Amino acid sequence: MIAGQMPVCIIKAEAIRRAVVGHTLMLEGGRSIHLTVRIGMIYTEDPDTPFEQLYRQADEALYISKTNGKNKVTVGGHSSVS
User: 0.85 exceeded by the pTM?
Assistant: First the structure.
């Protein structure tokens, strides 16, 4: 990654998070749910990285997002400040 540039995957994940956050889903009976987003992801420039390894790393990133609160995008163990 070039210093100062975010990979496209992070930009798109943040766009999804921003698009969903703050919306309220109205339920029957007048109840509502405020939507939040937690995204865990990994990226690599190595096409030989095994899928299982990437999946495990993305799952770990998602767990970090869940642990650190609502409205987070985590890439490879680094949470965004959301």
Answer: no
